[in-house]
Amino acid sequence: MSTGVCIVGAAESDLGVTGKTVLHLQTQAITRALADAGLRLADVDGLATNGVSRFSATQVAEHLGLRPQWTDSTFAGGSAFELYVGHAVQAIQAGQASVVVISYGSNQRSARSRTLAPYEAHTPEAQFEQPYGPLYPVSAYAMAAQLYLHTYGTARGRAGMTEVAVAAREWALANPRAYRYGAGPLDMDGSPLLSDPLRVADCCLVTDGGGAVVLTTAARARDLPGVPIEVLGYGEATTGTSIVGVGDLLRTGAVDSGRRAFAMAGLTPADVDSAQIYDSFTITVLLSLEALGLCDFGEAPDLVAARTLPLNTSGGGLSYCHPGQLGVLLLVEAVRRLRSTPDRTALVHGTGGILSTHGTVLLGRS
């Protein structure tokens, strides 16, 4: 099945330590994605982005001289860009826009704007967590990891998280764009403990970077020079903003977002040829693989160790790039892989906050 909407362009901005502004990185990503699509800025009438300010879409549009008739600046953390795909498909289907750009850019490493800090009382529930001094957000994911180890076995769970990090590094060694490209094998045992049981190597990078994808109708895509990638299905889910609010840490909202995406596409997890799974932490990948139905609960360590499913093939947020929000770059990698390999379907899944928001997108090459 198909939504009748395709991704026709995908590109990154400069990555790593760029010294560039957020708007510069946004501009790079958008103009490169449009060039990849064979389109111009003048063709864009829809824009979805965040991370610049409270008026992100307005600011980016003004910077580029655009006057879009549809915008979306929903902030949902790392899953926002998978959510934008669903929103953009709906807008294109409804005739609210004909060419939508989804973009992001961040200079958090150059600006030294990312810090590990104790929780702030963002929600009423946080008052019950803040006195214990957890680090945001790593301690929340560390609690999920501790529960995973307790439920499925310490050695098994720890080996699974290590396999996620090692596999990401191996993919990054083949990706010249990766921040850790050429850095050699991963020494997990030598990685300092950050928030038990998570080590530094279990945690995503802090880099500059950004990316963009361009969507339009399948009918228009046929007249463009590149290989169009169809949006087959999408789903989203929201749980809670705090550790208390999430509920079951081992059965995340990906259960629901994935189920909705597969139902829309008329596919099952067995139909997925490759997956780009948000890897803010190694435990995030194990939890997501299981919640999405790509394996049974407790079986993600075996799936990752078997390497039968191409996973986070750019190197992911652990070894390739993590500019605060990775979701758009997961889409970029999925498009590139579908264009350049025999894969027919790809799953992209974004996670935001403390296992708070979830967006699943299924893509296919016709």
Summarize it.
By secondary structure, this protein is of the alpha+beta class.
Figure out the total of helices. Answer: 12
- Residue stretches low in confidence (pLDDT < 50, at least 5 long) are none
Distance N to C terminus: 11 Å
Q: Shape from CA axes?
A: globular
Strand arrangement, major sheet: 3-2-4-9-1-10-13-12-11
What are the secondary-structure elements, in order, as H or E?
Answer: EHEHEHEEEHHEEEHEHHEHHHHEE
Structural class: alpha+beta
Mean pLDDT: 94
The whole-angstrom Rg is: 19 Å
How would a crystallographer describe the biggest sheet?
Answer: 9 strands, mixed
InterPro entries: Thiolase, Thiolase-like, Thiolase_C_2
Protein name: Thiolase
Organism: Dactylosporangium siamense
GO molecular function: acyltransferase activity, transferring groups other than amino-acyl groups
